[in-house]
Design brief:
The protein is of the alpha/beta class and 285 residues long. The chain contains eleven helices and ten strands. The strands form two sheets. Strands 3-2-4-1-5 form a five-stranded parallel beta sheet, with helices on both faces. The protein has a five-stranded mixed beta sheet with strand order 6-7-10-8-9, sandwiched between helices. Helix 6 links the parallel strand 6 and strand 7. The radius of gyration is 26 Å and the shape is extended. The N and C termini lie far apart (66 Å). The model has no long low-confidence stretch (mean pLDDT 93).
Length: 285
């Protein structure tokens, strides 16, 4: 395999305070052959704050031109360029442009590396006071109410802590929908304006947070929600055990394997499932 000579660098940018910019960010911005920025005006403000000027070409790379510009940037990489990708805040490709370019670069055997930086997801998790050993990042929920509830229902039984981004003008509706689907007492944290002057973290049950948000909230929002509680072993009656075995048998499984699989699913001894199947057969004779 021949590795392309160029390098794609994904660089994290401050989510609030410019003082959080990693030292390598200024070096990469100054030295890259091409800087692809989600918003070139914000990039200009960032470079001015860091006291540097990019020596390379600066191009825009945002949702509207991501598909068209990706092949252009990949060709730069294949021809040996060092391409730096930055978004408005945080790490590229995390609910921001970047995934298409990374995938295309990997496909062409281009080296991809990163300048680690601030992350709203990890910052909110750390501040939430909720379990962080296992978590899921869900990005932005759909704007339409029905689609939003459907997405939340998919995550209703998720045991890991959930992290969402949300726009301030939709926060009250989203929290109300979460309270409806997840339960009013499910714990959550709303993290607003992280690392900025008016940083605020509100913690409490979803119903309480929804009532607070109804009064109006401003700023960049990250919502962290407690995972679903452990329901304990599933209680499955004999009739249901028999039904599950029958479904598997009709799908082509041998009875012995079907009984073993159903017992594992329900968390009961195989003998219990076997006895239920035998009893059902005798009752039907």
């Amino acid at each position: 395999m021949t590795v392309a000579p160029g390098t794609l660098v994904l660089a994290g940018t401050p989510i609030g305070s410019i003082a959080d910019a990693p030292p390598r960010l200024a070096e990469e911005l100054a030295g890259a052959d091409v800087v692809a920025a989600e918003d070139t005006r914000r990039l200009r403000r960032l470079t001015q704050a860091l006291g540097i000027a990019p020596k390379g070409k600066v191009v825009s790379y945002f949702e509207g031109n991501e598909s068209a510009r990706t092949p252009e940037l990949v060709e730069e990489l294949v021809n040996g360029a060092r391409v730096l990708l930055v978004t408005d805040a945080g790490m590229p490709s995390v609910s921001d442009p970047g995934y298409r370019l990374v995938a295309a670069a990997v496909e062409r055997d281009v080296r991809v590396t990163a300048v680690p930086g601030p992350s709203a997801v990890l910052t909110a998790l750390a501040l939430s006071g909720l379990p962080v050993d296992r978590f899921c990042f869900e990005g932005f929920l759909p704007r339409k109410a029905g689609e939003r509830r459907a997405r939340l229902r998919e995550a209703a039984d998720e045991r890991r802590t959930l992290v969402y981004f949300e726009a301030p003008h939709r926060l009250d509706d989203t929290l109300a929908a979460m309270a409806e689907v997840f339960g009013t007492g499910r714990r959550a944290a709303v993290c607003r304006e992280l690392t900025k002057t008016y940083e605020e973290v509100r913690r409490g049950p979803l119903a309480e947070l929804a009532a607070w948000a109804a009064e109006g909230v401003r700023g960049e929002i990250t919502v962290v929600v407690e995972g679903a509680p452990d329901k304990g072993p599933e209680e499955v009656g004999a009739d249901e055990l028999v039904r599950r075995v029958r479904v598997r048998e009709e799908a082509g499984e041998r009875r012995k394997e079907a009984i073993a699989a159903v017992a594992a699913e329900a968390g009961v001894p195989k003998r219990e499932v076997f006895d239920a199947v035998v009893a059902a057969k005798r009752a039907a004779e």
